[in-house]
Amino acid sequence: MTSTDHELADAVNTVTYEVHRLSVAADLGYDETVRRYEQAVPALDEARFAALATGQPSWDDVRIATAPNAPHDFLRYWRGEFTWMFRAAGDEGRCVEYLMGNHVIAERMFRHDPGVLLHAPLRTTIHTDREGETWFSVDQPSTHFRSYGNRAITIVGIELDLKLATLLEHLGLPVPASLTAGRVPVHAG
């Protein structure tokens, strides 16, 4: 191996880890599930945050601006509706995807490793299956954040599991037991 090969090897960090994708059945139907979700997880108040960004806000200013926008601890940063595009190919399924999170919570991980923004906010979908049944899907937060090898980040990931469980309960959806385990493993990183 040449010195250039060693430099390249040192410039790449590969982390292999297990992620748990959680899909829960939504007996409410697609449109009603989307409606309830978007009501419980409101869109980011972009005008309010744009106004903050023009000044020199304190972290308290950001926290105060966030709280009313996240009644169930989460807000929507993005919504993507691409069903129309796939219908053009003859596909009958429906799906809307979101980026959902809370920058006040994410900051508690960011201070340890800014790279956590790869997984924060969380990516979620509401979609139908081949039989037309509606599902809500998300990767379990703690399975992503445990991979950073930092106990403080892992703890926030587990807190996000619990907040996600509370949101699902509010929506009337089944709560996977893995979200409510609520304990930090000995080897949390």
Largest sheet: 5 strands, antiparallel
Mean pLDDT: 92
Distance between the termini: 32 Å
Total beta strand runs:
5
Whole-angstrom Rg: 19 Å
Number of helices: 8
Q: What percentage of residues falls in helices of 4 or more residues?
A: 25-40%
Describe the overall structure:
The protein has 189 residues and is α+β, with helices and mostly antiparallel strands. The protein has eight helices and five strands; from the N terminus they run αβαααβαβαββαα. Strands 1-5-4-3-2 form a five-stranded antiparallel sheet. The two termini are 32 Å apart. The model has no long low-confidence stretch (mean pLDDT 92).
Topology:
Blueprint: H1 3-10, E1 21-26, H2 30-40, H3 46-54, H4 59-66, E2 75-81, H5 83-87, E3 95-101, H6 103-110, E4 122-128, E5 134-139, H7 141-145, H8 151-171
Antiparallel strand pairs: 1-5, 2-3, 3-4, 4-5
Note the main attributes of this structure.
alpha+beta; five-stranded antiparallel beta sheet; 189 residues
Summarize the structure.
With 189 residues, the protein is of the alpha+beta class. It has helices at residues 3-10, 30-40, 46-54, 59-66, 83-87, 103-110, 141-145, 151-171, and strands at 21-26, 75-81, 95-101, 122-128, 134-139.
